[in-house]
Amino acid sequence: EATAKTSPTIMAAGSRAGRNSSAPHDAAAATTAAATAAVLQDDKKHVMLVVLGDIGRSPRMQYHALSLLQEGHKVSLVGYSGEPLIPDLESRHASPTNTQLAVTRFKVPSPKILQKSLPIYLIWRII
Asked: What pTM does this model have?
């Protein structure tokens, strides 16, 4: 005994699938579905990628940023300064018409106490 399986159908909110419905409701549902699809298609996001280290030494995060940019999203890349970015990101960041990519790089923090105590530490390690 075989049973027929049907695939689920996605209907717009307010549609009346499987019921007797009038043409105006179907037209309104189709219009609503088309408008919703257009909004979802044009909905681009602003993504912030935070690197816990030197951005230049994190190619995976740079390629994630590049991929998001190619999809049309705005990207903010935040991390420490150091090595240069990959060429594709560097050229986009340097472009005067760039509105999609923001790169914020910080200097690596170095507490004053460590700078003052480093000679003492080195002498202690030698002895």
From this structure: 0.55
